[in-house]
Amino acid sequence: MPEAKRVSADVAADEMVRLAQERGDRLAHDRYQAMRPQCGFGQLGLCCHNCNMGPCRIDPFGQGTREGICGASADVIAARNLARRAAVGSAAHSDHGRSIAMTLLETARGQAQGYSIKGPAKLLALAKEWGIATDKRSLEEIAEEVALAALEDFGRQDGGLRFVSRAPAKVQARWESHGVMPRGVDRDIVGVLHSTNMGGSNEPYHLLRSCVRAGLVDGWGGSMVATELSDILFGEPAPLVSEANLGVLKEDHVNILVHGHEPVLSDALVAASQTDEVMAACEAVGAKGIQLAGICCTANEILMRHGVPIAGNLLHQEFALVTGAVDMMVVDIQCIFPSLRAVAGKYHTKIVSTSPKAHFEGFTHIEFDERRALDSARTLLLTGIQNFANRDPGKVHIPTDKSPLIAGFTTEGVFDHLGGRYRPSYRPLNNAIIDGRIRGVVGIVGCNTVKITQDEAHLTLAKELLRHDVLIVQTGCSAIACGKAGLLTPEAVELYAGAGLQEVCDAVGLPPCLHLGACVDNTRILTACIEICREGGLGDDFAELPVAGAAPEWMSDKAIAIGFYVVGSGIFTVVGDSLPIMGSPRVADYLTGGMEEDFGARFAFERDPLKAAALIVEHLNAKREALHLSPMIYEPRPAETLGKRWRAGGVALAAV
Ligand code: NFS
Ligand code: SF4
Q1: What is the mean pLDDT of residues 447-456?
Q2: Which of 137, 503, 520, 600 has its Cβ near the most Cβ atoms within 10 Å?
Q3: Domain 414-629 has CATH 3.40.50.2030
Q4: Closest C-alpha to ligand 1, atom 4
Q5: Spacing, Cα 74 to ligand 2 middle (Å)
Q6: Is the pLDDT of residue 376 over 90?
Q7: Is the omega angle on the peptide bond into residue 546 within 30 degrees of 0, that is, cis?
Q8: Strand partners, 215
């Protein structure tokens, strides 16, 4: 009998899974097993319920129905479904961006309690970029105008998004010539919903172009607004040390988890948790203090700005509850399982929803109001502290596993390190690529999924690329996966990096995988690529750079939107599970082939992380060759040395 697949590559998760089994808790992987076999029509993208004459489904083998009742083909149905999902993902990131812009506006107007402008340098830089006057004006006056300008891009009808002008001219030219120039965030998302309404667009390539546009308004619109304005409001992240995994929970502390995405709430919770009142309340219930920790992207947000430790990524939301030590989980929006109600029901954990945009049956709803942020945060914390008394010590089981990590890298900050403190520049990075020490830069991002062993694809792909001298940048649940596994530490250099990458990282003390933040911060990868182009020597188009993207365990529609803006911007991207379009060979061929001619890059679908790594290395090599770069200085590190202290024999460390 084949060995049963492990639920997780993470030992702490394993421990929780075993405990959950003993206790009869049903978790996501149990529900996944019960769901199998999953509907093949849905997986292939061949099910349509866009009107009430349906639902219609197309027989992928060409023997049954070949068209919907309205006559829609497999190609149309697959492309139309994909466009809708890209629009949903883009809407999620963009609405998050809108919240940040609104909070910045309220802060500037003195209407938001407890927030202030913590990233003045970023504010001034953005004001300059957007032609907003800064002379003799207060930070608040400037911030008000910047926030209003950002909000304008949501409702803009024409003229193009402000951030589009950041993109290299060749990238913009491709968008123009293929009719996907992003116009306005809300407009282009609504546009997809309109086109995919019954009897709307029925030409697959037109629909696929609208997927690209829906992605672009995310990456160059909503998400970029979220990143830039979060830096202004909450401060620009700087490298800091913290920890990740369930071992960060403390038996003698009130453990409060924040889960979700919008940092507006989590940032206020961090501020409110440091008051004397909160400490006194902890003491009153017999707790030594309060331990805040994060799940999913809100975890990344407060990690990179405050060093708050990470409890885990997507699938850890349930594992954390099985510890019996979580007194409250505060959720806002996105990636939150409604199952938390049932899992928490076996424990004392209080699950509190806070966003006006997301209510959950059975969760306590305490709405968060950013105008009274500190009061709201205080109420939430006191609720959690009170619940400490209800903990059943007999059920408490906290795994000891946790790993140190470094987080808080940004486009502006990271290369300060490479360039030395007084010479912030991308020159050293570009040179390391040009000289053949670093093969290229790859973003490994995205989710967890129950369909494969949690974290395993992220880790295998990362290690395989590191041994090929690839510098890795990370966000989202992928960054958390690597954080839990110790890859976000300088020590990982010796354990996994090839000799060239070792030289570069060792010279400046960088980890080989750089944590750039939450999923909206994938835009930092775009802006880093802009800087690489600007620095010179590696081409002036994203499509020329030896860079790539990967989302080996993707599950969310947000990942589809990200995929489209990354590929649509000219960056080759490998996703694990194929996009749900395989029932249409024409759509699949375009995404994995024809798209390159139009947009400078294509998708690849590859579930095996070693094969995905091979595709990426091959791609980086091809780009290097096209740029006539030097051959790599060192052979790839032998696979059998991974995880062991290693240095290429007899190689002198060259100055970087
Ligand atoms: Ni990104 Fe972050 Fe995680 Fe996936 Fe969900 S938390 S926004 S969508 S699961 S990486
Ligand atoms: Fe069927 Fe066409 Fe209606 Fe879709 S839009 S459900 S294919 S009739």
Answers
A1: 98
A2: 520
A3: yes
A4: 447
A5: 11
A6: yes
A7: no
A8: none
Say which CATH topology domain 74-234 has.
Answer: Substrate Binding Domain Of Dnak; Chain:A; Domain 2 (1.20.1270)
Tens-place pLDDT, residues 142-198 = 999 999 999 999 999 988 999 999 999 999 999 999 999 999 999 999 999 999 999
pTM of the model: 0.97
Residue at token pair 């909206």: 520
Ligand 2 contacts CB of residue 351 (under 6 A) = no
Q: How far does residue 104's CA lie from ligand 1's centre (Å)? A: 24
Q: How far apart (Å, rounded) are the C-alpha atoms in residues 452 and 576?
A: 10
314 lines ligand 1 (CB under 6 A): yes
Give the residue, by CA position, lying nearest to ligand 1 atom 2.
Answer: 297
Which pair of tokens denotes residue 414? 């990271």
- Please state, in angstroms and rounded to a whole number, the distance separating the CA atoms of residues 12 and 60: 41
Would you say how long the chain is, in residues? 656
**414-629 has the same fold as 242-395:** yes
Give the domain ranges of the chain. Answer: 4-57, 74-234, 242-395, 414-629
- Which fold would CATH assign to domain 242-395? Rossmann fold (3.40.50)
Ligand 1 neighbour 331 (Cβ under 6 A): no
Q: Nearest to residue 518, comparing CAs of 462, 477, 550, 489?
A: 477
- Identify each DSSP E strand in 429-552 by its residue range: 440-444, 470-474, 513-515, 547-551
Buried b (16+ CB within 10 A) or exposed e, 471-509: bbbbbbbbbbbbbbbbbbbeebbebbbbbbbbbbbbbbe
As given in the structure block, the two tokens for residue 578 are: 């194929």
Asked if residue 310 lies in contact with residue 330, where contact means CB atoms within 8 angstroms, the answer is no
Q: Is 148 in the pocket of ligand 2 (CB under 6 A)?
A: no
**C-alpha–C-alpha distance, residues 206 and 184, integer Å:** 18
d(CA 569, CA 548): 11
Q: How many CB atoms lie within 10 A of CB 625?
A: 11
Establish whether residue 323 lines the binding site of ligand 2, counting it when its CB lies within 6 angstroms of any ligand atom. no
CA distance 93 to 188: 14
Which ligand 1 atom sits closest to the C-alpha of 448?
Answer: 9
Listed residue (66, 89, 91) closest to 76, CA to CA: 66
Nearest ligand to the C-alpha atom of residue 521: 1
